[in-house]
Amino acid sequence: MVRLLPLIVAVPLLGAALLVALGRHVRRAVAETAGCACAAGSAALAVGALVLTHGTAVTWAGDWRPHHGAGVGIVLVGDRVGLGLAALTSLLVVAVLAYSWRYFEEPPRGHAGAFPALVLLFQAGMCGFALTGDLFDAFVFFELMGAVGYALTGYRVEEPRPVQGALTFGFLNSLGGYASLLGIGLLYARTGELGMAQTGRRLDAAGGPDALVTGAFVLLVTGLLVKAAAVPFHFWLPDAHTVAPTPVSMLLSGVMVELGVYGVARVHTTVFAGPGGIPAAHFRRTLLVLGVASALTGAVMCWQQRHLKRLLAFSTVAHTGLFLTGLALMSDGATAGVCLYVLGHAGTKAALFAVTGILLDRYGSVDEHQLHGRGRGAWRLGLLFALGGLALAGLPPFGTALGKALVEEQADWLPLLFVPVSAVTGGAVLRVAAGVFLGAGPVPEERPGRQETAGDEEKPETGGLLRWLPAPMITVAVLLLAGALAVGTIPGLAEGTATAAAAFGDHAGYLAAVLDAHHSTPAAEGEWWTGPGVALGLLSAALAVALAVPAVRRLLPSGGWTGPLRRLHSGHVGDYVAWTVAGIGLLSALTWW
Amino acid sequence: MTGPLAALPYATAAWLFLAGVYGMATSRNLVHAVGCLSVTQSSTYVLLLAVGYRRGATAPVFSDVPTSVPVVDPVVQALALTDIVVGATVTALLLALVVQVDKGHGTVDPDELSELKG
């Protein structure tokens, strides 16, 4: 099974190559079946590796193993968290391909393989990034998922808005990627190694950190934080989500952003967590500041949106902030909680995007004001959307609530951040659900001149407006939400996650597993629902409802105080690049001083 | 090469990175901004090659020299080559998107593209 690890990346790559080569000559159903089969094959391999193996699976490409600690081989490391993310990615790709089955209209007529091929390439990049144990490979996979991500975001290339969002995405992610490569170059200069484990061991042997190691850390983490959309590197994310096709948004929000968070934690634990790396207190401070800032910014901006996709995008920023905050605690329990939170969030957010996509295809708009009351007949859609909102707020027994509860147990002050932020993001979704599907409250009045993005210019992704609810789309949304529910209700998953998190945070254990083939399984007790955890989950769900009700009746103040924050999101590439550089400065200050 | 001159390649890399970033932040033309992104990326080439440079060493090809001859680090050259491929892909893709922006909006000035905001 360990030998099959490279296939998780290779199968979608091969599938994409075949689809590009033969896509012109096959019918659409054939191309999509082939795409689904490749994605599902990769998913089966990843899940199989998770279930059938124990500990960390290590594969050296071409059997080029290191001798006496030195070597030029490239390594794939399937530890539990990496394999879990590869499995999540692959399963979500299958869901996305099923969602776009036949109904998703594709511009390049006569090339049925184009869209599935791009999605498979995206999957290969994400799985490779999750499984690689080599810094330079991580950069290449980072750029692969980046470049494919830009292409997918600007997929409807004939329309003006998508290309604009894709450009912003491209500029910022590439800039971040090049910063990361500079960091990798500096690390190579110091250690002469590119493997994460080898680099970590050499740094530890060299003694305490100096300016070069700190600089390398800051540059390396910059790219990953851009991908993770942490404030102030987050500006590309809402713009990309606003315009990306719905299936692409599901992947961007569901796993790609989370992979950025994973990259930060992975690079830190493998390379910088030892005595030669970054002091733990500095790392904790850095992640805490960025995490709390992202959570608050995301929540405030999410509440202000009327463009549904943009609203969901900012809720992703908020939740990424919560993930970063959880990882900043650097305890196994918190990491396990974040893992479950990511799983639950992926299902919930993808389901919410799926329902939003159906709204767009049926009513030709994703604007909260324009859709007001138009979804009255579609009670099933409304129920799904509202359930998604409650799950986002953290209603037990959804996986989001379990993950959130496990993190909150780690420190007394954490509920003060987690409960309001998740309640606001969930409340915003509930507000939309009540307005659109129940027609509750007065129709929101237009405020011309306001700094905002309306959602009435988006075009349906199907050939024309749908008159019925397409079965594959609804089924996918239901299954995704059911998946989020399963994360919180299957005890075995929480136990497995606890073991995975304990191994993930073990710096010495990772080095020994990769370089010395010495496997140890740290004992970990899986936490499960506790009384306070359930109570906090119910509290944030209740708070979300309590926020949504007066908001629907227009009893809340209009939020004019958020004007300055909204104006920062100017949509101008130059501004965002400047923010990224300011972010590098902030990171340096937090890490060094 | 010792003394202040030894730091010159690294200073060049830092300068290229900052010059590219400054260009992107102040650009009035998206084609120019894509060019600036390439300038930023060229800082990674300079840094990688500087890291692997050895004074008095030759190219890492052993077909016509004995294996005892010192050579520069071939790993960073492989990295730089991969990096160039990545850069070419990204530049081509972004330029294609700029062409589409021009078709859709009739302008490539980022100051006039403000549909996504707030």
TrEMBL record, chain A:
Pfam families: Proton_antipo_M (PF00361). Belongs to the CPA3 antiporters (TC 2.A.63) subunit D family. It is found in: Cell membrane; Membrane. It is a multi-pass membrane protein. Its main location: membrane. This is NADH:quinone oxidoreductase/Mrp antiporter transmembrane domain-containing protein. The chain crosses the membrane at residues 6-23, 35-61, 81-101, 113-132, 169-191, 211-236, 248-265, 311-329, 335-360, 381-401, 413-440, 468-490, 534-552, 573-592. Residues 133-407 form the NADH:quinone oxidoreductase/Mrp antiporter transmembrane domain. GO terms for biological process: ATP synthesis coupled electron transport. PANTHER family: NA(+)_H(+) ANTIPORTER SUBUNIT D1 (PTHR42703:SF1), NADH DEHYDROGENASE (PTHR42703). Residues 443-462 are annotated as: Disordered. GO terms for cellular component: plasma membrane. It comes from the Bacteria. It comes from Streptomyces mashuensis. InterPro entries: CPA3_Na-H_Antiporter_D, NADH_UbQ_OxRdtase, ND/Mrp_TM. The keyword Chloroplast does not apply. One of its GO terms (molecular function) is NADH dehydrogenase (ubiquinone) activity. Keywords: Cell membrane, Membrane, Transmembrane, Transmembrane helix.
From TrEMBL, chain B:
It is a multi-pass membrane protein. InterPro entries: CPA3_antiporter_subunitC, NUOK/Mnh_C1-like. GO terms for cellular component: plasma membrane. Keywords: Cell membrane, Membrane, Transmembrane, Transmembrane helix. It is found in: Cell membrane. Belongs to the CPA3 antiporters (TC 2.A.63) subunit C family. This is Dehydrogenase. It comes from Streptomyces mashuensis. The lineage of its organism: Bacteria, Bacillati, Actinomycetota, Actinomycetes, Kitasatosporales.
